[in-house]
Structure to design on (158 residues):
């Protein structure tokens, strides 16, 4: 078990975008998405998405390091929305957290919680009034500890 002093949480650099994309890919695998359901061009798609989000949506990522090796990451940005945003920012400016990932050997040590806290603090600093994320079953307890509540989002599988 690690002690907290061995973990460094810091802002990711753009040179780490590929690593963050790999974390996203591993996250999908961890929650059971089959490899053949993931576009073979996933790396380029993710890197282009990050580039656009950095340019247009205040994208920022944070990484967790142990002994100089990145063992986890979390990304966040302004929520682009699913419909026209007609509200003034003081009323509704949502942030979105995605790809909170920690390598299996380092899980259950509070690293995901620290990474998520960093993203929340950043989104608050850029004026967000609410943070949204989609939680995996294993992530729900982490987010609930940070004060996240379950939303009214509903879905229907077709």
């Amino acid at each position: 078990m690690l002690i907290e002093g061995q973990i460094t949480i810091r802002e990711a650099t753009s040179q780490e975008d590929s690593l963050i994309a790999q974390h996203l890919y591993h996250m999908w695998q961890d929650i059971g998405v089959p490899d053949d359901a993931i576009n073979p061009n996933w790396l380029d798609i993710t890197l282009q998405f990050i580039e656009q989000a950095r340019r247009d949506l205040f994208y920022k990522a944070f990484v967790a390091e142990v002994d100089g090796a990145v063992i986890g990451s979390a990304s966040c940005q302004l929520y682009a929305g699913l419909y026209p945003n007609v509200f003034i920012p003081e009323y509704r400016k949502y942030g979105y957290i995605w790809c909170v990932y920690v390598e299996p050997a380092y899980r259950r040590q509070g690293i995901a919680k620290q990474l998520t806290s960093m993203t929340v603090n950043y989104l608050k600093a850029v004026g967000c009034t609410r943070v949204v994320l989609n939680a995996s079953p294993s992530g729900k307890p982490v987010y609930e500890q940070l004060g996240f509540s379950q939303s009214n989002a509903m879905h229907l599988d077709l």
About this structure: Residues 4-145 form a domain with the Aminopeptidase fold (CATH 3.40.630.30). The longest helix spans residues 42-56. The longest strand covers residues 69-78. The chain has four helices and five strands.
